[in-house]
Amino acid sequence: MTATPERPRSGPKRRRPSYLVRQDEVKRLQTQLQVLQRQLKRLQARPRSARAQILDVVGANNSLRDVIHGQQLA
Fold first, then answer.
1. 4-18, 31-45, 57-71, range with the lowest pLDDT
2. What is the DSSP string of 2-68?
3. In what helix (H) or strand (E) does residue 1 lie, and over which residues does it extend?
4. For the chain, does the N or the C end have fewer beta carbons within 10 angstroms?
5. Residue 69 domain-assigned?
6. Range ranked top by mean pLDDT from 9-13, 32-36, 49-53
7. What whole-number distance in Å separates Cα of residue 64 and Cα of residue 4?
8. Is 7 inside a domain boundary?
9. Exposed/middle/buried for 73, CB within 10 Å: 0-12, 13-18, 19+?
10. Distance CA 74, CA 72 (A)
11. What is the spatial distance between Cα 56 and Cα 50, in angstroms, rounded to a whole number?
C-alpha cells in the first residue's frame, strides 16, 4: 500500500458569490411554494367539516332567535 501525500491547503474556503446563493434560495422557495399550493388545493377540495356546518347552523339559529325576540318586543 502506498500512502498518497496530503495536499497542502490553499487557504480558507472561498465564499460563494451572492448571486449563486440567491439562485439556490429562489429554487428552494419555488419548490416550497409548489408544495404549499398543492396542499392548499387539497385542503380546499375537502368537504367542509362537521364542526363548520354545526357553527353555521348555530349562527342561523341565533339570528332567527334575535328576529323573533325583536318581533315579540315590538
1. 4-18
2. -PPPPPPP-SSPPPPPHHHHHHHHHHHHHHHHHHHHHHHHHHHHSPPPHHHHHHHHHHHHHHHHHHH
3. none
4. N
5. yes
6. 32-36
7. 88
8. no
9. exposed
10. 6
11. 10
pLDDT in tens, 13-31: 899 999 999 999 999 999 9
Question: How many domains would you assign to the chain?
Answer: 1
For residue 1, give the C-alpha cell.
Answer: 500500500
Scanning the structure block, which residue is given the C-alpha cell 496530503?
6
Domain carrying residue 59: 18-73
Q: What is the largest CA-CA distance in the chain?
A: 105
Cα dihedral: 43, 46, 52, 54 (round 10) = -170
Does the residue 4 lie in any domain? no
